[in-house]
Write a structure and sequence with these properties.
This protein has 114 residues and is mostly helical. It has five helices and no strands.
């Protein structure tokens, strides 16, 4: 009895990868083995950088809060320590937005914690 290889499923699997490789440069877009490696690597980078993005945004928020706090004669660590001590339940994302786009609201928070 001949061996069954299910070429329909194999082709579908390859087609899925080749579709993901669309837009790549050179052989990465149309040669199966090269495209498979490129797509695998791209998916690894995508997974990793979804987590890295959260870190970079937190870093940006800290920088903005620090700049806002220093305008009022406080360092970032002093400000955040006093925010926690006064039980102000605002996260860094909101504080950074206030510091950047609503300076009077941020000033009110700074005056409350001083």
């Amino acid at each position: 009895m001949p061996r069954s290889v299910n070429s329909v499923a194999s082709r579908a699997r390859r087609k899925k990868v080749m579709k993901l490789a669309k837009g790549y440069f050179g052989r990465r877009k149309n040669v199966w083995t090269v495209a498979k490696n490129a797509v695998d690597k791209a998916l690894v980078y995508a997974y990793r950088d979804r987590r890295a993005k959260k870190r970079t945004f937190r870093s940006l928020w800290i920088t903005r809060i620090n700049a806002g706090a220093r305008q009022h004669g406080m360092s970032y660590s002093q400000f955040m320590g006093k925010v926690k001590a006064n039980h102000i339940e605002l996260n860094r994302k909101v504080l950074a937005d206030l510091a950047m786009n609503h300076p009077d609201a941020f000033t009110a928070i700074v005056n409350k914690v001083k």
